[in-house]
Amino acid sequence: MPVTAPDTHRAIDAVWRIEAARLIAGLARMVRDVGLAEELAQDALVVALERWPRTGIPDNPGAWLMATAKRRAIDLLRRGKMLERKHAEIGRELAIEQELAVPDIEAGLDDHVGDDLLSLMFAACHPVLSTEARVALTLRLVGGLTTDEIARAFLVPETTIAQRIVRAKRTLAKARVPFEVPRGDALTTRLSSVLEVIYLVFNEGYSATAGDDWMRPQLCQEALRLGRILAELARQEPEVHGLVALMEIQASRLGARAGPSGEPVLLLDQNRARWDQLLIRRGLAALDRAEKLGGGLGPYGLQAAIAACHARARTAEETDWVRIAAIYEALGKAMPSPIVELNRAVAIGFAFGPAAGLARVDQLTSEPALKGYHLLPSVRGDLLRKLGRRDEARAEFERAASLTRNARERALLMARAAECWG
Amino acid sequence: MRFMTIVKGAEGLNPPAALLQAIGKLREEATKAGAFVEMGGLLPSTTGARVRLADGKMTVTDGPFSEAKEVIGGYAIYNVRSKEEALEWTRRFMNLHKQHWPDFEGETELRQMREFGPPA
Prior knowledge:
The complex is a heterodimer.
Chain A: H1 5-31, H2 34-55, H3 61-78, H4 81-84, H5 90-101, H6 105-124, H7 131-141, H8 147-153, H9 158-174, H10 184-206, H11 215-233, H12 238-251, H13 277-292, H14 299-312, H15 321-334, H16 338-352, H17 354-362, H18 375-386, H19 390-403, H20 407-419
Helix pairs in contact in A: 1-2, 1-3, 1-6, 2-3, 3-5, 7-9, 7-10, 8-9, 8-11, 10-11, 10-12, 11-12, 12-13, 12-14, 13-14, 14-15, 15-16, 16-17, 17-18, 18-19, 19-20
Chain B: E1 2-9, H1 17-32, E2 36-41, E3 49-54, E4 57-62, E5 71-79, H2 83-100, E6 106-112
Antiparallel strand pairs in B: 1-5, 1-6, 2-5, 3-4
């Protein structure tokens, strides 16, 4: 069957999606400007779109694109365009030109690709950028998403995202953010920014509901991809594996957390046969890697360990709540938060009885951070109901319903309040 | 979306070590691209069996599947954004066979996997 032009275009698009991040990363190392690197990579794509429909896709399309982009970079450099961009002090210009001129592209690419990609992630998540800018730039440069896709996923106009990306690239260039993998203490803080961005993308996708643009739930997939890439590049970092484990296990429940009409189904009520065992297996393996690296689990690893307790239980009744309560205690130390304490109270309620849980929750009712947080009365209501204090329970569920802004959740809470009658 | 790729070829041939090594590198490449989920090779069909159901009757036949011209030799699962991306990984996989195992004749079938997705 002959390959038609639209087929080739789709195939080229696929090559682009696979190669874009590596190309941009490799070029950024050489020209030391993420924005310029992206332009060069895009230029190479334009050449490919012209040529490949006639010649067919080369056996090693990544190397072809890189060679083309490098030639283009040399041209630009010679014409002094890069000087205008104020990147090239004389010595540096020579260094760039030498690097670009290395003939054996493929060998060069292989040696550097891991560090380059990692540097690209660190640059895109650099603290000089706002969190929104980090998210957009990471999805664009590392995830290979179009501005339109990012805009649809975050429910904002495309021009907003385009501007955000342009400004972010300019900020990086202006701040002369070095294109490198941070070392020592800096690595820990910079890495936590990368992890935060990835988990933010994941949660944005996880919060998508029926009727949302289809790109929104795709964000979970994008975050998983980013996490898996990072786990391959920064294998010695337990928190990277911890985050990947957390996302894999949470993603395993995506198909079970909503009922037929889109209503939310709580974790313990979910049909576990619908949990994706492939993702659970990958999640448990990632958690295992995090644990084996030693030094104790960090906040992501601990959250993953809790998720793993649920994933391992074949039925809700088999859940090891004593263990979960203990992990929440560790999490509360690693990442002090009233929400963690509330979750710990829930676990204690399951592990040691509703009275013990209630005693914990009651210590939290004066917590300012939980004021107006619907899950506090909801948890309290649940424990009161188990203790047979139905009237108090109903009042708590009603209060919780009045506090949530999510219509589906409100309906669920009102139904629970109604169950307390009689 | 997830795609499963299933490679089929004549039975009884041992893939050269260079091919297995190259496939290992491809696996690493796909992992660094965030596309790799799982991959596995299958032992000869002598180690397997077939359980067939027809007319309500079940028959179990032990391997080898000598009547089959081509048998499944391995599989991979990729997490990709389009069928074309899965095709590209498969093209790379088959290219490795071309390079490291010139005598190989066979095919790789791509199938999109049904999955419990997020709310549609």
